[in-house]
């Protein structure tokens, strides 16, 4: 009897608040998503807010063709540092703040940990991207 009840529960349709983001036109890799190039389809206001937070202002990491849905794995934080760019490295300890020039060895978006090279000492270190051409060393 328990098996029949379990099977009935598993086979019953469960209402889910789902939303989908689709491309209005063909969007190339690196395109920033905005209201003008994607359409949001959903049923609840909370879903619209969640979709805007998860997609709008993010960057595509692959090309999406018009009418195709955009999965959350296809987007990332916008690129703030490009590989080989000259950057500012910031180290903060209490009220002391040290800055130095460096070279990005990887591309990264906000919050990404990338490898950078100190231009003075030529040492490679890991740092967190905090802004455009700016990293924080820990």
Provide a descriptive summary of the structure in words.
It is a single chain. This protein is of the alpha+beta class. The protein has 2 helices and 11 strands. The strands form 4 sheets. Strands 6-7-9-10-11 form a 5-stranded mixed β-barrel. Strands 1-2 form a two-stranded antiparallel sheet. A two-stranded antiparallel ribbon has the order 3-4. Strand 10 and strand 11 form a beta hairpin. The radius of gyration is 22 Å and the shape is elongated. It starts with a helix and ends with a strand. About 4% of the residues have low confidence.
CATH superfamily of the largest domain: Antifreeze-like/N-acetylneuraminic acid synthase C-terminal domain
Strand and helix order: HEEHEEEEEEEEE
How much strand? 35-45%
CATH topology heading of the largest domain = Type Iii Antifreeze Protein Isoform Hplc 12
Give the strand order of the largest sheet, numbering strands 1, 2, ... along the chain. 6-7-9-10-11
Report the strand count.
Answer: 11
The CATH architecture name of the largest domain reads Alpha-Beta Complex
Derived structural class: alpha+beta
Tell me the name of the CATH class of the largest domain.
Alpha Beta
Question: Keyphrases for this structure?
Answer:
single chain; SH3 type barrels; two-stranded antiparallel sheet; 138 residues; Type Iii Antifreeze Protein Isoform Hplc 12
How are the secondary structure elements laid out?
Elements: H1 2-11, E1 20-23, E2 38-41, H2 45-55, E3 59-60, E4 75-76, E5 79-81, E6 86-93, E7 96-104, E8 108-109, E9 113-118, E10 124-131, E11 134-137
Parallel strand pairs: 6-11
Antiparallel strand pairs: 1-2, 3-4, 5-8, 6-7, 7-9, 9-10, 10-11
